[in-house]
Amino acid sequence: MLKKLIKTHLKNRQNKIIFFDENNSLNGKEFAALVKKYINILKKHNNKKLGVAIKIGRNVDFFAIIYATWLSDGFYLPISDNISKKNIKY
Description:
Layout: H1 2-12, E1 17-20, E2 25-27, H2 28-45, E3 51-54, H3 60-71, E4 75-78, H4 85-89
Helix pairs in contact: 1-2, 2-3
């Protein structure tokens, strides 16, 4: 159900700006292409359900990776920039 909602959302907003940050603004079509790019990267690493830890700022890429994990039947774990490398490894 979530996949269908995401795909419908992106399709219905192909020419409307749906995500933006201080460096980018993407319409639905551009954002869908970015999501597809991340889906392909995820598929290269694993064909099974995939968990991804995300340690990047809250930008367009952050949300594209989240959408990509959802559409790949995976899950994500956001990691704060304030967490030390030692705690991340733990």
